[in-house]
Write a structure and sequence with these properties.
It contains two helices and no strands. With 76 residues, the protein is mostly helical.
């Protein structure tokens, strides 16, 4: 039971770090050229949603990679 709690905390931390890093990476993308002028709030909301989606995918990859790597010890 304790292991599940630790796994949950580590997963949340990994997701938050991945979302933060993806938000920083999204600053390099200029969506203003694609979005119509005067839609500042919608552009910021799109940045946020794209950062969350990208962060979730990266975080999910990292967590799955760690879990799978830990299961490799059962092979030997």
């Amino acid at each position: 039971m304790f292991q599940l709690g630790v796994h949950a905390i580590i997963s949340i931390i990994i997701y938050l770090i991945a979302i933060g890093l993806s938000f920083q990476a999204m600053k390099a993308v200029q969506l203003e050229k694609i979005i119509r002028k005067g839609h500042v709030f919608e552009t910021q909301l799109l940045y946020l949603f794209l950062a969350i989606a990208l962060g979730f995918l990266v975080g999910n990859f990292v967590i799955t990679f760690i879990d799978t790597s830990m299961q490799l010890s059962n092979l030997f």
